[in-house]
Design goal:
With 113 residues, the chain is mainly α. Helices cover 88% and strands 0% of the residues. The longest helix is centred in the first third of the chain and has 50 residues. It starts with a helix and ends in a 6-residue tail after the last helix.
């Protein structure tokens, strides 16, 4: 095969590491999305109060709220991208593990070894 068991193991560990990093990125992106959604709720409440106190027009209020929703949508997209990266990394791990099993069979190495 031209690949040693050590090299295969090293490649699999690299895949696990990439998967772990991708999962962390997904968690960070999800946290950012949650923060953005919380900011939307706070902004909506603050703008309602401001509207009452200052007589802000409905159009101005709606424009500010839409800006917050846009920021939240971007954060959600970032979370989705990070989750997709995590899924790809996990798939790479599965492929690498399968390749290792095939290589071991070809080399006559048992699972216990």
């Amino acid at each position: 095969l031209g690949v040693t068991e050590g090299e295969l193991e090293k490649a699999i560990q690299s895949c696990y590491h990439q998967a772990a990093i991708a999962k962390q990125e997904a968690a960070v992106a999800e946290a950012k999305a949650a923060v953005a959604e919380a900011k939307v709720s706070v902004a909506e409440a603050e703008l309602r109060v401001a509207k009452v106190k200052l007589g802000v027009t409905e159009g101005e209020l709606e424009k500010a709220i839409q800006s917050c929703y846009h920021q939240a949508a971007i954060a959600k997209q970032e979370a989705a991208v990070a989750e997709a990266k995590a899924a790809v990394a996990e798939a790479k791990v599965s492929v690498a593990e399968a390749e290792l099993r095939v290589a071991k069979v070809k080399l006559g190495v048992t699972e216990g070894e």
